[in-house]
Amino acid sequence: MRALVAAVIGLAAALALVLTISAIGAPPGETSPKPLLTTVPGPKN
User: Region Disordered: which residues (predicted)?
Assistant: First the structure.
């Protein structure tokens, strides 16, 4: 029973955190038009 109560409290805290962050909104700014490199560029032929 204690584990169930702890799980419910943890889930409620996580949900409250998500709702708080979404209520605040994204910070102002722009995204970069250049794509990010996900791998190391190899030698050019």
Answer: 26-45
- The alpha carbon torsion through 7, 15, 27, 25 (nearest 10 deg) reads 180
- The reported pLDDT for the residue numbered 31 is 77
Report the alpha-carbon angle 34-38-22, nearest 5.
Answer: 70
The span from the CA of 20 to the CA of 13, in Å, is: 10
Spatial distance between the Cα atoms of 40 and 45, rounded to a whole number of angstroms: 15
